[in-house]
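Kindly inspect the following:
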Amino acid sequence: MLLELGPAQGPALLLAHGAGAPMDSPFMEAFSAALADLGGRTLRFEFPYMAARRADGGKRPPDRMPKLEAAFGEAFAEAFRLIGDGPLFIGGKSMGGRVATHLGDSLPAAGVICLGYPFHPPGKPDKLRTAHLADLAVPTLIVQGERDPLGRRDEVEGYALSPSIELIWEPDGDHDLKPRKASGRTHDENVAAAARAAARFMGAIG
């Protein structure tokens, strides 16, 4: 099932959810609405484990990467049929974006957009998930909170990343791009800025 939001034509983004929240979580809804206001279209889907959670309410861990990749590929084929001739980007929140980067060079996607990339597990900065990012060829945008515990700015700036990757930093943002009140910045402002970055990226590439 694909959940669509935005204009019927123009660049589209197939957006996958993170490990712990579904395709209609508050973050996914807020970002998709902000992108739609800028003329971008999102198509969202759920990985098998999350679809099963929705069906029976049970708690399940994320599927293994091969199953996640297969599900993303199936959703891409469905989205590609829906949008027709317009450019189709892939991406996601956290884990969803990570899966998209694994597929970026193998699917005919216009580019990849990651919202809060999980560069490493929480509290394990030595367990990097960056090896494939060094050679990624597809144009990629990563929008990251400056104090994201899965990849802070001071950590990420030391990683070896492909020149095809553009990094945008959201002021004082955490893994959901949410800043602290003392920063003077709001969550809505950071989400809106992320949507503007995505719309600009999609317009420039598409």
Summary: The chain has six helices and seven strands.
